[in-house]
Amino acid sequence: MTGATLLVILSHWRRHPLQLATLVTGLALAAGLWSAVQAINAEARASYDRAAEQLGTAGAARLVPEAGTIPVARYADLRRSGWRLAPVLEGVVRLERQSFDIMGVDLLQHPQAPALATAAEADSVPPLEALLPPGRIFAHPETAALLTASQHVHPVTRMATLPRGIALADLSLASRLLRRPDSLSYLLVLPEQRPGLTPLSELAPELTLIPAHAAASDTARLTDSFHLNLTAFGLLSFAVGLFIVQGTIALSLEQRRGMIRTLRSLGVPMRLLSGLFAAELAVLALLAGAAGLAGGYVVAAALLPGVNATLAGLYGAPVDGSLSLRPGWVLSGLAMTLGGTFLAAAQSLFALWRMPLLAAPAARARGQQASRSHLAGAVCGVAAIAAGFLILATFQGLISGFAFLGALMLGAALLLPLLVSTGLSLGARFAKGAYSEWLWADTQAQIPGMSLALMALLLALAANIGVGTMVSSFRLTFTGWLDQRLFAEVYVTATSDSQGAELARWLEKQGITALPRRYKDSRFKGAPLRIYGFEDDAAFRKNWPLLDALPDVWDQTARGEAMLINEQLARRHGLVPGGVLELEPEWRLPIAGIYSDYGNPNGQAMVSLAALLARAPNIPNRQFGLRAAPQEISGLIKSIREEFDIPRENITDQATVKARSLAVFDRTFVITAALNLLTLGVAGFALLTSLLTLWNQRLPQLAPVWAMGVTRRQLAAAEVLRSLLLAAVTAVLALPLGLALAWSLLSVINVEAFGWKLPMFLFPLDWLRLFLLALLAAVIAAALPARRLSRIDPAELLKVFANER
Amino acid sequence: MNVRFFLCAAAAGWATAAQPQGYAGLGTEAEGFAIPQPGTQLSFPADHGPHPDFRIEWWYLTANLVGTDGADYGIQWTLFRSALAPGEAEGWKSPQIWMAHAAVTSQDQHLFAERIARGGVGQAGVQADPFNAWIDDWQIRSARETFEKLSLSAAGSDFSYDLDLTSYGPLVLHGDNGYSVKSASGQASHYYSQPHYQVSGTLELPDGPITVTGHGWLDREWSSQPLAEDQSGWDWFSLSFDSGGKLMGFVLRGETSNFTSGTWITADGTAEPLAPGTFQAGPLETSDVEGRKIPTRWKVSLPSQGVSVEVQSLNPQSWMGTSFSYWEGPVTVAGSHSGTGYLEMTGYE
């Protein structure tokens, strides 16, 4: 009996292949976008872990300074207290043409020492030679090639197991290149410690112990917000996909009511029937899930370079290019699809289970039943939005920001049917004539059947407006900020300090203002902090993008009595002008102002150069910003090149720097744009499936109108018009939601994720474009049902009157 | 483990030609390092401190102890200095590498540990006045410049010890006033000892703490190429007889012939250098140790002093499985003389 029943149940799909295609596509889309995002996240995270492992910093807890750096003598003290620690010094070094991230380690203590020794031996070099001048650099072959091209002093050993972009060296070399012979960035706590040691918290209260799992890296900490962002996008796509699935499943069960009644009359037990329906769904979910995973993999592979660019641009996080297939990803993707399918089918399956034995098939379209449910939905929607605001007011952090966004969007979606219905009621007042009135009324009657698709469209449009507004506002602010910040006309980097000094003398003789760019890397509360020293110049006073400042900010700072900090640092630690900050042990300065510093994840402070040099006399002096009149720029560059042996790429004019910065910015948001477009595509598809779903149920309503003399062609046109109308109302409603979304992205999420708040700008042209796009989606979605309607056999319409259906 | 990689590699790096390299790369050329010179007058306390122009140097303390439980114990504490290049430099630029071994041996246990450190940054080092030799939390130190009263500590993952040492006799200069010849072709080292220490303190063992007393022997030696190129290792004895006399003797095993030498130390601490060949030692019995055959019972004789004894290891498994592995452990002496001592055997690969 089971076999026969199954055949009967499945025969439905043979008669409704389009419905089957819709269901499978919807599921596959949901699974695909979700798993694409998951794959990207997993790949990036694995890449950070890999980098940590290759650098030997994985699995070890870290001791980081609360402020400043760790003196080497402190390291020796802790070793002499019995703790087995491995010292690490990190920094950026400029080698002639290019900057490199240097990681200095004690080759005798570092966890990766055996691998490094093996690599050196493979080069036929005694490993310990790396401890003696000129030292030796270990790097990934790609980075090694750049290193070899940039300098010839320090031999480079290629190690494919090292992450790209990092030059690893013994501390003897690294401390020399970074000119930091006496300080360390952090200490790795090696796994083997003898029992009975005095706790580190007692021995070194000024250092913070970060446990191994939390220490993964600064990278992972910084990029968490980005990955949460992606996950939110993935979840949105998944939800939109499930809207499609829910509608299709409901329809497929409803259409089989007659069949169910017959089967029940023939004695098929309800238990078996429900089991078979569930099994059918499970198989469909798994098949569609597998297809979705395959698609998701392709999407992820296509998006990954963009994501890598984003991560590198925003956080300087090194992410390797290729995507790998992880079993965990496949399983979780399938489980998610299966769970989602049953979630979407829950209501329909429950209704089936509760159905009276011989219930008649639904005689009326689902349309007319519930205008009351609009109200219930709206109440839930308002409650969800209220809950969202409550969360935002009560909790801090990125998660609460996203929870607010989620609640806002869910609430708005639930409110949608009531709002659309109200909008259509208002529209109906302008109806003239019976046909027009029927059109309005009929459109309103379609809302329940279309509401899920409309919700999907609303969410997709709102996400587009919100994210688009955020990105465009960011870009506008960023461009303005670049103009302020990059006020020097030419930027020069000398190849050595002596050349830097010579250049400064020469420029002075030429009467050209040169603003040195010198800094020291330090730490504040365990996170990286870069301290810049600046020479007082009118240009700073005029241009520097201050967000908030005391009245005599520049005078105080120039005298070395105060400092400026960037917005990130201020927001992270709740600092305001007038407050005091301890830059390094025994170096406390009041904060005179806060400046914006976009595109930089880390904290920054600016003090007078004299004050910085008093504390760190040996910091490099190679970078200069030069002031020049526009017509002198090319001549200046030429004469510098004639006078000094400075590579061309080390001299850049302002316009080039700006162009490069903007290019990085644009690359950063490629992934966002792509996901935006995909979500909109899914929503358009949802619209199509709803219209197709309604198609069969529409005939009984259309037949009488046709019988009264409205032609099939007119009916088809009305079909398209209706779809347009609904999409238009939804798009209009999506605008305020999108702007609310943009506001929370700019003022809540950005602040939590990056530490900067951005002003919001409005881009009405973008809205218009999106509005037209929504209408286009509606026309395309309605085209297929309308075409069918215009060509329907009149006999079919007549059957409505004859057939009980 | 990583350390082994680097040091072994270092040893390989030191080797010059395709000659047998000798133990730990010691049998190699001097490459700009200082060479021990006969007639050098050692001066103290300065010579208790490091000699960075020489390639290798050690502060080597062993002690034979008896616990309150009546059992015999031995401890070893060694700090090696190994220079990648002659001289000293500040901070990470220092070419000096320090390595230390500590061990506790009983009849059925041999526990050991190793530490490694860079010179120049304070993690390890030796200062002569007041005397202090340290690496991480291991150290030998004196309140004064001399070796008269020392406190000694070390700790591994499964043992630690804390001992006080008080000397009861003079320093002993080996060979020709501290110039100790190591091969017929003239390789030599500077070498002196303080073999007269009374020792007391506590050992922390896996079964709990044990109070111990006994006597200790401290060796100081530095050189740049102590082995001839054909020498593959050595057997070194430091024996303290109940009669009060002491004997330091070594056999350097060569490809064709062995080179032996040593010092007879009278009860009052007077040193009598032994002419090459007068000290004799030969294995009586070998044991399987870590897959090697190692002599753990010896016949030792010094006819000029009427010494003819059997030297038996307390624990034949006293293998130091460190970056450079070797056998080192306490011994008992029976025969014409009775007593205790330490035996070190290297180059058994």
Structure description:
The complex is a heterodimer of chains A (805) and B (349). Chain A is 62% helix and 13% strand. Chain A has 25 helices and 20 strands. In chain A, the strands form three sheets. In chain A, strands 11, 12, 13, 14, 15, 16, 17, 18, 19 and 20 form a ten-stranded mixed β-sheet that branches. In chain A, strands 6-5-7-4-3-9-1-10 form an eight-stranded mixed β-sheet, with helices on both faces. Chain A has a two-stranded antiparallel ribbon with strand order 2-8. The radius of gyration of chain A is 33 Å and the shape is elongated. Residues 361-369 of chain A have low confidence and may be disordered. Chain B is globular and about 50 Å long. In chain B, strands 1, 2, 3, 4, 5, 6, 7, 8, 9, 10, 11, 12 and 13 form a 13-stranded antiparallel β-sheet that branches. Helices cover 4% and strands 53% of the residues of chain B. In chain B, strand 22 (326-335) and strand 23 (339-345) form a beta hairpin. At the A-B interface, helix 3, helix 4 and helix 6 of A face helix 1 and strand 4 of B.
Which percent range describes the beta-strand content of chain B?
over 45%
Low-confidence stretches of chain A: 361-369
Level of helix content of chain B?
under 10%
- Largest sheet of chain B, described in full? 13 strands, antiparallel
Largest sheet of chain A: 10 strands, mixed
